[in-house]
Write the C-alpha cells for this entry.
Amino acid sequence: MLSMPRPRAFIVALGSFFILFITFHSFSSSARYTLDLGTTSDITRQKPRTSRVHLMTTATTNDVNLCRLVASAAINSYPPPLILAWHGEGEFNAAESHMAKIPAALRYFDSLPPGSENDLVLFVDGFDVVFQLGPDVLLKRYHETVRAHNKRVEDKFGVEHVRKHNMYTTLLYGPDVLCYPVDFRRPACWLVPESTLAPDLFGPKTDRNDQHARPRWLNSGTVLGPIRDLRILFEGVMDLMNRTFDPNFYGRNSDQFYIANLWADQEFVRMTSNGDNTSLPVPLPDPAPADTIDHLEIPNPADREKAEKHIGIDYEGYMYMTMALFHDTTIWKIFNTPQRFKNPNKDGDFEIPLAPDVIHSKLPYRSLPRWTWANRALRSKTWSDVPIAVNAITRNFMPVIHFTGVKKFRDMWWEKLWFIPHMEMLLETEPDRGVIAKVDGIRYEPYLPFGKESKRADSWADTGELLGWGELCGEHVVALKTKYVEPPKEDKKEKEKEKEKEKSKEEKEKEQHEDKPKEQHEDQPKEEKPKEQGDNKQEEGQKQQHEENKKADPQE
C-alpha cells in the first residue's frame, strides 16, 4: 500500500479542510438570506433567516382594556408589549389625538440599534385589541397573505412590470366594512381594490348595505410588517399631515385618514403605471350619494415612485378580525368535532372544522410547570379542547380580535377567551425565550425592549421604564376576573303604565285649570297641549330607531 510522506499528507489534508471550510462558509453565509416571504418573484428585499418581532401599542394612561391586551399577549407568547406615548404630552398625547402614535413610533424606530430595519413589528390599538391565538399562527398567516397579495399583483400586471415599479406588499393592515372618515369622493373610499371575499358572501344582500358589506377599506388599528417599510409610511403620513392639515375637518386627528389616503395614492399609481389613465374603476359602494360620481377626487401624487408604500389589507380577517358589524356572525365553540352552522344568508347548512394551522400550533397550556397532576392534565389539552371564536361567514379563526363598533363586546367576550379560567396561573409562568415561530425558513424571536429581560406579564414604556404587571394592572385585576352582567332591560309594560299615569295626571291638571275663572289665569303662560298617544308612540319609535342606528354604527 502506497503512502504519502507525512508532511505532504498533512498539507493536503489542511488544504482540503480549508477548501471545505470556505465552501461551507460561503454556502452558510448566502443561506442566511432568503427571498422576502417566499414570494413568486425576486422583487422583494432579502431578509436574514433570524428575525425579531416587536409588539407595539399606544397608551398615554392606564385602563382595564390595556390590561386585557397585555394579559392576552403574554399568555399567547407574544413579545413584551412596548407602550408608546406613555404619559405623553403635546404631539405624543395619545389621549388627545390618534395621530400621537405616528411621531411616537418614529421616535422609537430612531432609538433602535442598527440592523433592526428587517425586524417585524406588530402595531395594534391599545384599548380594543386582544389576542386569541399565538404568534406562530399569526406569522404563518402573514406570510401566506403577503404571498397571495403579491401573486395577484403579478398576475394582473406581469412579473417584469411589478419588478420595474417595485409593487409588492409587506405591510398588512386590518380590514373595515366602512370607509372612515366617511366621504365617498375621497380616493380612499372609491379607488381602492375590491375585497377578495366572495361577491355573494352574504347572499343577494352582499354589499347592498353596511350590515352585509364585505370588508374593503383600511383600518389602522392593526398592522404587521417590517420596520423599514412602516417607517417610510409613517414619514409619509407626517409629511401629508403637515401639508394638508385642516383644523376644521372632523377627521383631522385620525391617523387612519392619512394612511388610507396614502394607500389610495399607491393604488392609483399602480393602476396607471402602464400609462393608461382612462380605465380607472369606479366601484362606488351602494350607500354613496347619487351625485358623488360627478365630484370624485383624483389622486395627484407629487412623486409617483414614492407613492408605493407596500400596503395591503387582510380582507378575509385571516390575521385580525375587525369586529364592527361582524358580532352576529362570530361564534364561540369548542371544536373537538366539526361544527355545523345554519347560514342565514344562503341556503343550506355548512361545517367548520378547526383550522389545521391552529391544530398544529403550540399547545395552549404548555407554559405551565410540569410537576403537578393538575398542570399535567392542563398541559395535555389541545386547541380542540378549548373555546375559540370563529367568524361563521369567512370561516376564519382569528389570532387577533379588534373590537371596533359596539364596545360592550370587549366586556362580554373577555370571559369567553380560552385562558380566562386559569389566567392568573398562566401569567405567573416563565416567559417564552428563543424562537416563537418558524415560517418559510425564517426563525422569529421576540424582541426584548431595551435588550432587557422581564417577567411574562411585564410591559415597557417607550421611555425605558419597566411597567410590571402589578404596577400597571394591579388595580384592574378584580375587573379582569369579574363576569360580565348585562344591564337590566327596560320593562316596556311598566314604561307604558308610567306613561298612562303621567297622561292621566296631566289631563286632570288641565281640567282643574280650565274650571278656574278666566280672569284668574289669563295672564299666566299657556300650558302646552299634551301629546296624543299616537304622538308618544311616534316619538318613542324615533328614539328606538336612533338607538338602533347608533348600535349599528361601528364608529360609535
Residues 1-45, 518-556 have pLDDT under 50 and may be disordered. The CA atoms of residues 5 and 98 lie 78 Å apart. The longest strand covers residues 217-226. Residues 47-322 form one domain.
